[in-house]
Design goal:
This protein is of the alpha+beta class and 174 residues long. The chain contains three helices and ten strands; from the N terminus they run E-E-E-E-E-E-H-H-E-E-E-E-H. The relative contact order is 0.24.
Length: 174
């Protein structure tokens, strides 16, 4: 039996800009980042890794405020959403379909992508993440925006492929 590990990741190539207004004057995140949805297949037998870019589009900056009273807690994320998310899912579903046609047992992976939730063999549900966190601002954490490429794993799955038995071998024909 052949085994590969599929990892689908979302990359955000983020830039910063000078913000000169208000109490947060200094570096700030650009409103959009260049996003890339990519797949990596790692062959567990020989260690080779195949990478493929599936979709590229802009990601939108989102600030999530979890602050409570005097305790500051902010997260900055670049998000793939709306029509762009639906297009990315279509490309990813096409890729998973191709793996299935090649004989890989993708199980419920296509349904997980459509529903944004993966349920593993132990019946544990995991929400698929279509965002890349680039900064956390907390009470003790002072981290200024830094341009660069940030990544987040969307889904990671072990796939198996059973060798096909030729009909003549199955019937004992020589």
């Amino acid at each position: 039996m052949q085994r590969i590990h599929l990892t689908v990741a979302l990359d955000a190539e983020a830039t910063t800009a000078e913000e000169r207004i208000g109490p947060f004057a200094g570096q700030a995140w650009a409103p959009e980042a260049r996003g890339t949805l990519r797949a990596e297949l790692a062959d567990l037998d020989d260690g080779t890794i195949m990478r493929q870019k599936l979709y590229a589009c802009p990601l939108t900056l989102r600030e999530e405020d979890y602050s409570r009273g005097a305790v500051v807690s902010l997260r900055y994320k670049y998000v793939l959403d709306g029509t762009r998310l639906q297009i990315a899912k279509a490309y990813l579903l096409h890729y998973v379909g191709r793996l299935q046609r090649e004989g890989w047992q993708t199980g419920e992976l296509a349904r997980a992508i459509e529903r944004d939730i993966l349920i593993d063999d132990a019946n544990v549900a995991t929400q698929l993440c279509w965002a890349v966190q680039v900064q956390y601002v907390g009470r003790r954490t002072i981290q200024h925006p830094t341009a660069g490429t940030y990544s987040a794993v969307v889904v990671s799955q072990l796939l198996n492929k059973r060798p096909r038995i030729v009909a003549s071998a199955r019937l004992g024909v020589r």
